[in-house]
Amino acid sequence: MQNLIEAFTNILDKQYVLDSEEDKAPFLTDWRKRFSGKALAVLLPKTTQEVAQIVQVCASNQLAIVPQGGHTGFCGGATPDNSGKQIIINFKRMNQIRAIDVENQTITLEAGCILQTIQEQAAAQGFLFPLSLGAEGSCMIGGNLATNAGGTNVLRYGNTRDLCLGLEVVTATGEIWNGLKGLRKDNTGYDLRDLFIGSEGTLGIITSAVMKLYPLPISQWTTLVACDSVASSIALLNLFQKRATSLLTGFEMMTQESLSLNEKHFPQMANPLQSNPPYTILIELSDHESEEHVRQLLETVLEEAFEAGIISDAVIASNLSQANGFWQMREHITLAQAAEGANLKHDITIPLSSLESFIAQTDRLMRESYPGVRIINFGHLGDGNLHYNIAPPLGVDPQTFNSSYEKPIHELVYSQVERCQGSISAEHGIGQLKLQELRAHKGSVAHNLMKALKMALDPQNILNPHKVLSI
Ligand code: FAD
Ligand code: 2HG
Ligand code: ZN
Question: What is the DSSP track for 261-281?
Fold first, then answer.
């Protein structure tokens, strides 16, 4: 072991090879405090060449590597196992913006760039970097790419995958693949970039990426709307898609129960809609035309929705700070759930045409089978992506509840997802949390193809083993 630490200190300055228990501790537990592990060392490289050299040492010694960004992932992908034999490569020192190409409308980033910093730097040059999620103050672009993160702008700009034009990757043998061309068309055989995106560090280590930029919108209007049912929420979405088309940049759903939990832990986050409806919808329109143009469009569509009986109440943010308050309310649900205690997350996608049936049936079965459970259902309705989370009945200890009911509750939800031809992971990935579910729901042909890819790219199984696939 000492030899290995020495080998790493030949690559990195000693201060960037963390091997004391105290120094390693902050890197060993995930954001939800659900997964904890041990590591031989935590390495903090500064350059792609250093990453490649580290991987070469690991490959020669069959040492497993866990790549780590902001460690905000929900599936334990960036947490090592308990063997104490894995090494973590954390990317916080690889945080340079290598280039902003104004004509090509691209930004070239190192894996450790914090998402919020990227948004701010892009805005300073008049560009929008549209990836946006609650963890943006700490998650890193390498982690976003490795999980193919979604967030709140997907319905207009797509997932992280859709925003990426090129990658630089260190392979399992420690070679560097430079795929950093910022091209919008490139049909030169297999798409290696798309293979690494969403692979959660199991096929290669992302060190840099070329990402798309967009013109910064000059006007934005945000509204909260009351809907009485899932059907009317979807009718409202369809109406906005038809009338506002590409101006529709956000369409988020929050149930009454989700917002009550929010208010319990963050009283300042009370729903501005006095009617406290079953479904509160947050809608954002953005454009490059005048404020008046967008505001008028928003009012016209809301009026039409009132007249059609789709909505019963609405409040339009009168300024940026109020609009931010609406978004804060939406993003605090995760924090309210964390404050309440451990919960069972289901990050799922359902085709919009089956969403009403999914919610009706799953709610009914859940309440019948587990009386008193709290269904904290919210999410990116515009993408058909629900966070159908389950909290224990009031007064019941979450750990005790979860240890008894986690498996059957997951089975209940995922069997309904299967019935509706949805996905058991919309945007958070698989990590070590959903290994069994992936095997059960991906289909054996797809699962075997995934295994074949893993064996071909990482035959020694040193890249994040036992994540995504149980090998
Ligand atoms: P980590 O958690 O460090 O790693 C995630 C995975 O990527 C691991 O498997 C890790 O091994 C791998 N990895 C990390 N860096 C690299 C690299 N350079 N090369 C190869 N593999 C790598 N997610 C969403 O999709 N949408 C949301 O709306 C959303 N909201 C969130 C809100 C909150 C409050 C929190 C805490 C999390 C949220 N997440 C959301 C989940 C999480 O933020 C995302 O999954 C994010 O993309 C993870 O980035 P990270 O840098 O923290 O990655
Ligand atoms: C969000 O959309 C995140 O806010 C977190 O994806 C979801 O807490 C969750 O389950
Ligand atoms: Zn989400």
Answer: HHHHH-GGG--S-TT--SEEE
Of all protein residues, the one whose alpha carbon is nearest to atom 25 of ligand 1 is: 149
CATH of domain 219-419: 3.30.70.2190
Taking the domain 97-215, which CATH number applies?
3.30.465.10
Q: Where do the structural domains in the chain lie, given as residue ranges?
A: 2-90, 97-215, 219-419
Select from 115, 139, 282, 347 the residue to mutate for testing ligand 2; criterion: most ligand atoms less than 8 Å from CB.
347
Ligand 2 near 389 CB (within 6 A): yes
Q: Are 265 and 339 in contact (CB under 8 A)?
A: yes
pLDDT in tens, 178-196: 999 999 999 999 999 999 9
What distance in angstroms lies between residue 249's CA and the mean position of ligand 3's atoms? 15
Alpha carbon distance 199, 197 (integer Å): 6
Report the CATH number of the 2-90 domain. Answer: 3.30.43.10
User: Whole-angstrom Cα distance, residue 96 to residue 114?
Assistant: 10
Strand partners, 168: 178, 208
Q: If you take atom 2 of ligand 2, which residue's CA is the nearest one?
A: 379
CA proximity to 298, closest of 345, 251, 264, 228 = 251
> Which atom of ligand 1 is the closest one to the Cα of 169?
19
CA 355 to CA 234: how far, in whole Å? 9
The model's pTM is 0.98
